Structures are given as structure tokens and as C-alpha cells.
What we know:
Layout: H1 2-25, H2 27-40, H3 42-55, H4 57-70, H5 72-85, H6 87-104, H7 106-127, E1 143-147, H8 152-158, H9 164-173, E2 181-185, H10 186-195, H11 199-206
Helix pairs in contact: 7-9
The structure holds zinc ion (2 copies).
Amino acid sequence: xxxxxxxxxxxxxxxxxxxxxxxxxxxxxxxxxxxxxxxxxxxxxxxxxxxxxxxxxxxxxxxxxxxxxxxxxxxxxxxxxxxxxxxxxxxxxxxxxxxxxxxxxxxxxxxxxxxxxxxxxxxxxxxxxxxxxxxxxxxxxxxxxxxxxxxxxxxxxxxxxxxxxxxxxxxxxxxxxxxxxxxxxxxxxxxxxxxxxxxxxxxxxxx
Length: 207
Ligand SMILES: [Zn+2]
Ligand SMILES: [Zn+2]
């Protein structure tokens, strides 16, 4: 072994020169053979590189981090250029990544969606006073938005509102119009819907 090393050291220049010449001469052939080997052994090579990575994880990660620290600008510049030159591929890649993320974070997505939904409803209720205009009920779960002039169906149709959520979104988008909208509790709202007026109102007049 040492002899080989010694021999190499002594004849370094000429050996390198010979190798280089031979490589130059067979460049295409070598490249072709390498590519063929790669294609034929894709799985094996992938596995081997994965194994190598796992075995040397800390060292490789540290190397990568170090490279990234030292070449940040270069990295972002290259990445940006790649994105610009491969718009379709980039989009497909992002779509795939977001699909995987969604599949792995279903609970998070549901919680976030619920949080957004609750926040929207809370904002709307707050904008209209947080209590039933008729009886004063303030338990949020009992409250809803009432179309004062009973033109809810028309309003919803004209604005393509198909759910309570969509109704809240519409109200927020239109800066919570006070004209025509108020909060009622479900009791007062149903009574108004069925009988044209909530019995509370008759009581109030009687008193
Ligand atoms: Zn009420
Ligand atoms: Zn009432």
C-alpha cells in the first residue's frame, strides 16, 4: 500500500497526465456508461445514498448548514433563477408538497379552519352588539343575524350566499351595514319568521 502511495507521489504528474488524456479520449463513452449504470441501478443507488446519509447524518447536516451559511446569497440567487426557468415544474413541486403537508396535518387544518370560522362569527356578533335586539339574550350560541325587513331569501339569492359562514363573510366585506341587519336569538328569530312578530314585542307593548 505504502509502495503504491510512494510510487504515485513520485510519478504523480505523469500518472495524472495519462489519466487525463485517457479520460479526454473516452469522455463520451464514460459519460454514457455512467448514465446507463445510474439508470439501471436507480433504486440501489438511492438506497445507498440514503444509508450513507443516515450513517453520517450529523456530519453531512453540519456541512450543509455551513455551506448554506457561507453561500446564502448564492443559494437564494440560484434557487430564484431555477424557479424562474422552471415555472411549471416549480408549481407542480409546490402543489405536491402542499398536498403532502395537508395529508400530514389534517387536524391542524381543521383546527385552523374552525378558529377562523369562530373568529369571523365573533367579529360579526360584536359588530352588531353581541345580544338579541328583542329579548337581550347574550349567550353567543343562541344568536344569529336577522334580516330586519324579512328580505333574507332575496338578499342571499342576489349575493350568492349559501351558508351562515358566507353570510358572515358578506357582512364583514360590506363593513357590517347596520341598515337591514340585527342580532336576534334563535327563539325570537323563529317567532318573527313564523308569526311575523316575536311575542316579546306584544308583551312590551302591553307593559
Ligand atoms: Zn331573543
Ligand atoms: Zn323576542
